[in-house]
Amino acid sequence: xxxxxxxxxxxxxxxxxxxxxxxxxxxxxxxxxxxxxxxxxxxxxxxxxxxxxxxxxxxxxxxxxxxxxxxxxxxxxxxxxxxxxxxxxxxxxxxxxxxxxxxxxxxxxxxxxxxxxxxxxxxxxxxxxxxxxxxxxxxxxxxxxxxxxxxxxxxxxxxxxxxxxxxxxxxxxxxxxxxxxxxxxxxxxxxxxxxxxxxxxxxxxxxxxxxxxxxxxxxxxxxxxxxxxxxxxxxxxxxxxxxxxxxxxxxxxxxxxxxxxxxxxxxxxxxxxxxxxxxxxxxxxxxxxxxxxxxxxxxxxxxxxxxxxxxxxxxxxxxxxxxxxxxxxxxxxxxxxxxxxxxxxxxxxxxxxxxxxxxxxxxxxxxxxxxxxxxxxxxxxxxxxxxxxxxxxxxxxxxxxxxxxxxxxxxxxxxxxxxxxxxxxxxxxxxxxxxxxxxxxxxxxxxxxxxxxxxxxxxxxxxxxxxxxxxxxxxxxxxxxxxxxxxxxxxxxxxxxxxxxxxxxxxxxxxxxxxxxxx
Length: 519
Prior knowledge:
This protein is α+β, with helices and mostly antiparallel strands. 48% of the residues lie in helices and 16% in strands. Among the domains are: 111 residues, no CATH class; 187 residues, no CATH class. The strands form four sheets. A six-stranded mixed beta sheet has the order 8-9-4-12-13-14. The protein starts with a strand and ends with a helix. About 4% of the residues have low confidence. It is found in: Cell membrane.
């Protein structure tokens, strides 16, 4: 059994074998002798000892052993380099001009080069971009929407400041060895001299603002994080309730509203689940991050983060797949035309009937019966965020053969021509003539539980020249090319009178004004 010792190096207690300790002592004595001529030798040697202590701790943890062996010390010396290697390089050229040896990069704030908190300078080191371009981007994003300022404050709190020499070397991606330490020390001395020469009120303000951020600013961010937790949790709960409603947990026909009304029943549930995942995963990630900020919690485990990312990407991929599949249901287009003659009258009244007639199928779907719906009048809602797109258009044209007629054109899309034809045949539209009154329905209806495939109804009313049309203002939403507010001074009442002329439909008041001007 080899004799072991307990030593204190870099403020860390290390268990080391005796022969390994002798080799380490000789190595450290060489380093101390080399830097003895430097006024800041203690700081350099302390930084080197701290790095060696970190490497010993990593070895003990990785190999699951209790003591450092001579092999471990040799490995550390090989990685750090010896004084003889450093002196030979120093003889050839000044160490400050030696090329950098690349190491592992970590994100830190560079307060020595930073103008405020060193966030932009630290990002510049990490991304290999000059800090002035990072600062310019941060300034522009702050001026445009304020996002740059918020991101800067968040990174000020989250990203640690490079304090030790090892952290500064990690920040720049320098190899952690003797050459790297002396190079970093020389650069630090140069930068500190520049800082002392520049000084000024900006540095003082940055120092005060830094203390504010680390004190009062942290409290503000904790309160903000708590507010974000409450808001995100509420939104996540709302998403869960909405998903349950659409999946039929509650007595709610969510699949009947647009745009879900265009999705086939065979995969609407999967599409809803994918949409829920795409919305819920970012909310959950925001909640977990805010909890960490508010309560100084531990960082989310990488497996959890990767799991959420994979789940979110799977939700996006599933949603894109079914959206693309739904889009194939609109490849073909078909139209059906029906022409009907109208009873001839010199004056027609065009009216809108918002009441809806329910079929037996509708009554079963909406649970309508004589007991609970007696005396009800159901009105169609054409507006709303989830209403279907406008599907009824009315055109009024001059008849070329002096007959009165209405042409109903039913159009639809489908995956195939037969499917499009079937979808067009499923259209039901309420139009009727009662004496001289032409009544139009506000929307078309679909029978046989047909899905929305951009079904449309186009009505063309043709009347001879001289026919008077008294049009309800409510039809403005459906008329193509005519609006009641264009009809002279006719701003009162629910109806506006128009007259068919050789040049098309004209407002009666407009014709009176033209006749008055001619006289």
